[in-house]
Amino acid sequence: MRIHLDRTLCDGFGVCAKHAPGYFSLDDWGYASLIGDGTVAEADRDAVMRALMDCPVHAIMEMDERRPDDVSPPPSGDEDPAAHLKTEENEAEWGFTR
Q1: Any domain includes 81
Q2: Is the pLDDT of residue 76 over 70?
């Protein structure tokens, strides 16, 4: 697991340093800094996830480990994308109200 701290969002609540002091430190004004490169050991995952979930301003994010080549390919194109558009002709199907 990898995390990222957006310091521009941090409001200095210090919740992250309380839950995961090995990964977050507070500067002189109380704003968080990430310790290390954001790689979280499996043993510390729960504490870091609690810090992530309890951050009042959502300044901590879990980085997606997928790589661009891991992304599934787009649909083959056999199906017409316009078939699923909401239009006046199928408004009863989609529940439109006027």
Answers
A1: no
A2: no
**Cα separation, 40 vs 48, whole angstroms:** 8
The answer to whether residue 34 is domain-embedded is yes
For the residues 54-66, what does the mean pLDDT come to? 86
DSSP letter for each residue of 35-57: -SSSB--GGGHHHHHHHHHH-TT
- R_g (Cα) of the chain, nearest Å: 22
Range of the domain at 21: 2-63
Measured torsion, CA atoms of residues 51, 54, 57, 60, in degrees rounded to the nearest 10: 30
In a domain, 26, yes or no: yes
Residue 24 pairs in a beta bridge with 34
CB 46 within 8 A of CB 38: no
Which CATH number covers residue 43? 3.30.70.20
pLDDT (tens digit, 9 = 90+) per residue, 20-29?
Answer: 999 999 999 9
